[in-house]
Write a structure and sequence with these properties.
Elements: H1 3-23, E1 25-31, E2 37-43, E3 53-59, H2 63-70, E4 73-80, E5 85-96, H3 99-105, E6 123-137, H4 142-155, E7 163-168
Length: 170
């Protein structure tokens, strides 16, 4: 990968992270023992740098931990309909016990789920390594939607839907 490609990928990764941070909550999908998919909401820690890895706090005795330990493939789906921002991240998950990383990422609001704080024996981190991120970033104002509707009605052609892209991590 040459310097221009690295710069382009860095810009695309920054765009993905900006869209993710605007959404706050991810739907984390894992694979259950019988092969069915299982999704649940997860709060995204926005106080982290995005280098292709996204971190979450989790409890060791949760179903997601069992599912990630059994099959590492996960998906994170983000949506902010009000802003018309959407991101789908396919990657691999790993459950990690790393006190230094937990301390780095900790915020007091997490005490809601971990009353004992960083000393909670159930506290663990879920590390998601991004393989590919697909995003959609569409204009969201009523004026833009009104213009799009009018253009489609007059020309029979839909307007450009906004920015869409895919970022593959190397």
């Amino acid at each position: 990968m040459d310097a221009t490609q690295r710069h382009d990928q860095a810009g695309e990764m920054e765009k993905v992270w900006d869209l993710v941070k605007s959404c706050e909550i991810a739907m984390l999908t894992t694979v259950q023992e019988d092969g069915t998919l299982h999704s649940r909401p997860m709060g995204t820690l926005r106080n982290q740098d995005f280098d292709g890895t996204i971190w979450f706090f989790t409890k060791l005795d949760s179903a997601k931990v069992d599912e990630v330990n059994r099959r590492h493939e996960v998906n994170l789906a983000y949506a902010h309909p009000g802003k018309q921002n959407y991101v789908s991240i396919a990657g691999t998950g790993e459950v990690v016990r790393d006190p230094a990383k937990a301390k780095e990422l900790w915020t007091e609001v997490l005490r809601t789920w971990f009353p004992e704080g960083l000393d909670d024996p159930q506290l663990a981190l879920l590390k998601v390594e991004t393989k590919v991120a697909h995003y959609w970033d569409s204009p969201s104002s009523m004026l833009v939607h009104g213009y799009g509707y009018l253009k489609a009605a007059l020309t029979g052609k839909p307007p450009k839907g906004g920015d869409e892209g895919e970022v593959r991590m190397s």
